[in-house]
Amino acid sequence: MISLEKDGSYWLAVIDRPDKANSLTPEMLEKLCEIAEAAHHAQVLVLTGVGKVFSAGADLEAARAGLAHSPLWERLSGAIARLPGLTVCAMNGTVAGGAMGMALACDLRISVPDAKIFYPVMKLGFLPQPSDPERLTALVGPSRAKMILMAGQKIPVEEALAWGLVDRIVEPAQLLPAVRALSEHTLAADPAHARAIKTLIR
């Protein structure tokens, strides 16, 4: 349910469980961790999903069994954030819950229209993963982070673009071509040069 396509240094990881809103089981989350940890060999890592939802976060049954508190979420977002190359979340649809962590850890978030972004930890009685509030606040500021995490608001992607939570909105058919186009300068560069620029930005 997690596939990886490699085109040289361009890696595309795909969440493929559309009948369950691409919700993640422990096995799927482990596979995503392994991909992100191996992606230091790539110059670009793209995360996307199949269907109209990027990911609804944890599978509900798995969440009740403990996945909501699993260290795998933080392992995944940390591995993405540490990568020296360009990381892109190609949001084919709504992103929710724990799946927000991997989106926030990416360098860029490119979305289709009409998606929503929400993180219902207050309603569900869970805490967000430790690094998620900091990354969210860095992008949108403390008040808007509280709007998402404490007020539980579902943010339309068009509003998220104005906030800086999403970087660009493109039509569904153009999502992956647009992401590939954004990757070309990094793919053409010496990896050490790309790493140096990313380090300066950090």
Structure description:
The protein has 202 residues and is α/β, with parallel strands linked by helices. 44% of the residues lie in helices and 20% in strands. The protein has helices spanning 26-38, 60-64, 72-82, 100-105, 121-124, 132-140, 142-149, 157-163, 175-188, 191-201, and strands at 2-7, 10-15, 44-49, 53-55, 86-91, 94-96, 108-111, 116-118, 155-156, 168-169. The longest helix has 14 residues, at 175-188. It is globular.
Question: What's this model, at a glance?
Answer:
The protein has 202 residues and is of the alpha/beta class. The chain has helices at 26-38, 60-64, 72-82, 100-105, 121-124, 132-140, 142-149, 157-163, 175-188, 191-201, and strands spanning 2-7, 10-15, 44-49, 53-55, 86-91, 94-96, 108-111, 116-118, 155-156, 168-169.
The side-by-side strand order for the widest beta sheet comes to: 1-2-3-5-7-10
Helix content: 40-55%
Overall shape: it is globular
For the CA atoms, what is the radius of gyration? 16 Å
Q: How many strands appear in the DSSP assignment?
A: 10
Count helical runs. Answer: 10
Structure class: alpha/beta
Report the end-to-end length measured between terminal Cα atoms. Answer: 33 Å
Main β-sheet, in a few words? 6 strands, mixed
pLDDT < 50 runs, ≥5 residues: none
Overall pLDDT metric: 95
H/E element string? Answer: EEHEEHHEEHEEHHHEHEHH
Beta content:
15-25%
